[in-house]
Amino acid sequence: MTVNLLDYDLESLAAFCERLGEKRFRAVQLFRWIHQRGCAHFDDMSDLAKSLREKLKGVAYVKALDVVSQHISADGTIKWLFDVGGGNAVETVFIPEDDRGTLCVSSQAGCAMGCRFCSTGHQGFSRNLTTGEIVAQLWFAEHFLRRHLQRDERIISNVVMMGMGEPLQNYAALIPALRIMLDDHGYGLSRRRVTVSTSGVIPKMDMLGQDCPVALAVSLHAPNNALRDHLVPLNIKYPLEELLPACRRYLTHAPRDFLTFEYCMLDGVNDQAEHAHEIVQMVQKYSSAPWCKFNLIPFNPFPASGLLRSPQKRVLEFAQILNGAGITTTIRKTRGDDIDAACGQLAGDVKDRTKVGERMARQRTIAIKPVDRHVENVTKI
Ligand code: SAH
Ligand code: SF4
Asked: In CATH, which superfamily holds the domain spanning 66-377?
């Protein structure tokens, strides 16, 4: 049986090399070829012995995901739709900013959590991605961008696990993927610049703190259980009085001294001044010293949700109340609006297999082609 080496963190790759009768240090060379240089062909790995290259060809391969489509926004945001087989697709979004390049990565095809305001949640769960499929999104994006920008240095400085799926419900595949991202022989990303976003899977938050304490963002969306039960059904299992202490526990491991709460602003649902005051009380109950930040997310509407985006004025007022109480609050800038790259709009058709199949068939023929035309957009990064 042949294996995809994108599935292996350095430790597993070393064990794999040992099984092949090779010294462990060969794994470092191989890992660097794959992740740092984006090399998928053993023949091109010139400092590996020819005998090893031949051996590898018989037992392993390096394969990313097939690109179904690629869209480049006027603001430089790039969205890829990747085929993960069986009629499933996942999306990955690159967001260039002046001081960083952020990649938004998917962890599952679909999601079982069923959050009311999330189109992925509305589609339901298809399957967990493998470590290789999670890593492939970064591998492809990083090396694609380097080639097209003709730059040797690293382009993606930040990864946020905020694409499709609940990363902590795919824990076994997530941890090796995070290790590959952090590894100095891999992508060498700082723990502070890799963020796992969760709807609040408490036991796994505790495990993450032990196993791989990267930055954590918790999707809060409501200041009380009654409202959160409705918006984020996982709250029925892990209510706020358990979630908030779990967030505090995470801080003892976290690479930053604060945690981020995400809060999607829904018109007339969770965006009133009284909700903001309730948040202040809730947060201060756990510590009067600042320990969290809020990121208010403008809701990206989709018809089946029956929900609307809060008016900007109300979002500003909401932020003002939190900031006034000493809770640093930012409002997320929407990016890639013209290509539907925003949160909650990812791979809208995943559950509808026929539709995805058709869309893939339609788009495969045009896949990648638009890139060359848009290289100027990319070079603005
Ligand atoms: N499952 C994880 C990570 C993926 S969702 C989580 O829930 O945290 C990433 C972020 O996008 C979450 O904060 C989520 O609440 C938000 N989101 C989902 N749908 C959205 C929508 N339609 N508009 C704005 N934000 C949305
Ligand atoms: Fe899943 Fe996150 Fe969407 Fe909720 S918001 S359904 S947890 S992807």
From this structure: Aldolase class I (3.20.20.70)
